[in-house]
Design goal:
Length: about 290
């Protein structure tokens, strides 16, 4: 049962192959953890969620340390400029989880990463209003939306990566409120109304954009630290890269995310874990 309690990108892998007869069981599994008890996850899932390298964190910019991360060997992206052959979105009752398909999966490498990683999927965290939503904070300031692009070590299975130190690499990207829509989100968010019971809470995104459209222009400025998954069971196997530059998102686009319903028919919102202590960890930045 542990595997079925893993975060959104793992849940999607399981849910995507489900038949209609399996959905009632899978929905029950999805309901076993809830953001309503997020402050008690260390007690509910003590094996991992009570660890000392938990995520997310507050990033105190004046206490970060410069490291050569992006100076000599910049973080590099392969396949991010390629349009997916298809893209499937799912409401897994905790977030909007999105899995693009490729002939060759996009990869990230260099920039201080020990090995290359390949994309699994991506998902979002948002608030019930525009004053909150992101999981990471900068000097305690919270953004209204945060995107997580999840990658695993090339050559490993997901199960192996979950048992390996730095088995996963997650890119965190903030969004700030804008008076206009972000066109890179339009096609994806336009299908949120289709994520209903009748469609098994999944839908195909028409003519999906290349994932480079969801990256900031400045790929050289980011924070780096070692942490965990941000949902149960909070395994401490993640090397985090959190970009400094936010992207835009409009209020109407945030409302489309808030239109998703959870297992009880309530709006999916405030789906973020609060920052956890650093416990002596160093947070590095890639620029002087």
């Amino acid at each position: 049962m542990v595997a079925l309690l893993l975060p959104s990108f793992i849940s999607f892998i399981i849910f995507a192959g489900a038949t209609a007869s399996q959905w009632s069981y899978l929905r029950a599994v999805a309901s076993k953890w809830s953001y309503s008890t997020k402050d008690n996850w260390d007690e509910e899932y003590p094996k991992y969620c009570a660890g000392y390298r938990q995520s997310p964190i507050n990033i105190p910019t004046r206490e970060t340390s410069w490291k050569w991360l992006g100076t000599l060997l910049p973080l590099k992206f392969s396949g991010y400029d390629v349009e997916p052959t298809s893209m499937t979105a799912e409401n897994n009752f905790h977030t909007l989880s999105v899995t693009p398909a490729y002939l060759r999966k996009p990869r990230i490498f260099s920039g201080g990463l020990s090995s290359p990683y390949e994309l699994l999927n991506f998902h979002f965290h948002w608030g019930s209003d525009e004053t909150k939503g992101s999981e990471h904070t900068i000097n305690t300031v919270q953004y209204p939306l945060e995107l997580h692009l999840v990658h695993k070590l090339v050559g490993q299975t997901v199960d192996d990566a979950l048992e390996t130190s730095q088995g996963l690499a997650v890119l965190g990207i903030f969004f700030e409120l804008s008076s206009t829509d972000n066109p890179a989100l339009t096609r994806l968010l336009n299908i949120t109304s289709k994520l209903t019971t009748e469609n098994n809470y999944t839908a195909n995104v028409p003519k999906p954009n290349a994932l480079s459209s969801l990256l900031p222009d400045d790929l050289s400025s980011y924070y780096r630290y070692e942490g965990s998954l941000t949902t149960p069971v909070c395994r401490e196997v993640v090397v985090w890269t959190v970009f400094k530059q936010p992207l835009p998102v409009s209020k109407s686009q945030l409302e489309k995310l808030r239109s998703l319903k959870d297992i009880n028919g309530e709006p999916v919102q405030d789906n973020y874990r609060n920052p956890l202590p650093l416990n002596g960890r160093r947070v590095y930045r890639s620029w002087l």
